[in-house]
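We were asked to recover a plausible sequence for a given structure. The inputs and outputs are reproduced exactly as logged, with field labels preserved.

PROBLEM: sequence recovery
POSITIONS: 185
GIVEN STRUCTURE:
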């Protein structure tokens, strides 16, 4: 039998690759994710709940910033540092659902910036505005990578981060373009 990665690369059909490999869908999914060849569409249909939401946030970013280039398509599948480029500017997309707490609600965002690990130039963070609203009118934050000093950030509804880094969906492409021009100088 052929390896599931080889089968998937030939067909780009997850179900077909699983069937022909003889693996379970779960084992094949883990193998394809770890090899970096799983496509964004397969992540939406077959991946975890969080992967699906992250992939949908990436789709929304692409819609809002149409001149962006997906790292999945042109650099490496599941790039660990960034998801998109505009010029030389690297952008990592994050998503968080709203968690209700005693403090009105908060979001939890995991960044890829660790002490010795590279980080994206910018993080675009999509936050669920209301519980269970997903990406329906999300709060959008643009946070420079240089400002991310911890791999995990909890953002409360009254946090200064919301007022300091929030952009409207129709402003996002312009803000990204401004950063791109500065990076490309």
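RECOVERED SEQUENCE:
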């Amino acid at each position: 039998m052929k390896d599931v990665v080889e089968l998937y690369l030939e067909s780009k059909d997850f179900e077909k690759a699983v069937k022909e490999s003889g693996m379970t869908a779960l084992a094949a999914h883990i193998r394809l994710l770890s090899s970096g060849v799983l496509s964004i569409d397969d992540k939406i249909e077959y991946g975890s709940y969080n992967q699906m939401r992250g992939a949908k946030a990436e789709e929304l970013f692409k819609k809002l910033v149409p001149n962006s280039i997906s790292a999945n398509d042109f650099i490496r599948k599941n790039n660990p540092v960034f998801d998109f480029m505009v010029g030389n500017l690297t952008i990592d997309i994050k998503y968080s659902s709203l968690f209700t707490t005693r403090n009105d609600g908060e979001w939890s965002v995991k960044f890829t910036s660790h002490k010795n690990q590279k980080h994206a130039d910018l993080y675009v963070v999509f936050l669920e505005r209301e519980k269970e609203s997903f990406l329906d009118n999300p709060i959008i934050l643009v946070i420079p990578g240089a400002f991310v000093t911890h791999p995990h950030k909890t953002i409360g509804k009254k946090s200064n981060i919301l007022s300091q880094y929030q952009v409207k969906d129709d402003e996002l492409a312009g803000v990204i373009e401004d950063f791109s021009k500065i990076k490309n100088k």
